[in-house]
């Protein structure tokens, strides 16, 4: 449980600068409270002028945010995870942009369960909605937690299918957890929580509906799951963003084909052309994933021995290096390497640069 001062420092940091800048500052200082004790020269180097100005001014509503958060967190089933917590979801930690905060309502242990994302159109065909429910029911019965975004259409059908099967489901939303959007899914959200599901957001309480937040929450859907199934999607669908983020995170991507005459099938057909697996049944999905009983740990983290840590730092050298180049030098898998680099970044040994480049920091 965070102290009042720790909670205030996390909220001030996340409300004043972007996640990339916040991670840079945390890597330099070690904790949100220590960030505000950094010398001026370090802050000037870490933040561009506009962010530097925002950093200097605590949000006017900070006290209200802290008070509301403390009251909300006192309720049963309400929780908050911060980046660096021991039980922060390993799969999400291994992605390129893990959230600094995860607000949770419901059964938090679902974050570590085998899971699959099911996403798609907000305006699916009747068959698309049926497909989402049927696949979700079958995959939930097979032991997977179903992850989606609580939106209308395919998302809602995916949550419903998991609940109909007596399975578990996680909803990742783009607002604060003190509200439900869309309001038409308030009943579904209540049913999800009553059945032992989980609702997740990276946004502070009181965060209103902002369209830019919904594409960003898609990276959390992709990051929590071991694979992503796209049921129906137009060519410009946000579901294709989730699929792309899944590929970047090293996850499996599946797509259900549809009629060549349906606009809602074109996004899935594009994914299949790009390498997504065409699936016609839940078995097609399951055969691409290891049996649950023999599944290894979800995501490797930084090796614990100093020798292995030093070997990775030696492979980096001191010049900026891309993830692909470092994979080739070290022989590590992408997910394992991303997790290791984030741990090194938070420990102050590595800096994340623009363009997804990484650089070893000179110590001493």
Automatic annotation (TrEMBL):
InterPro entries: DprA, DprA_WH, DrpA_SLOG, WH-like_DNA-bd_sf. SUPFAM superfamilies: MCP/YpsA-like. Residues 296-356 form the DprA winged helix domain. Gene3D superfamilies: 3.40.50.450, Winged helix-like DNA-binding domain superfamily/Winged helix DNA-binding domain. Residues 80-289 form the Smf/DprA SLOG domain. Belongs to the DprA/Smf family. This is DNA processing protein. It comes from Pelomonas aquatica.
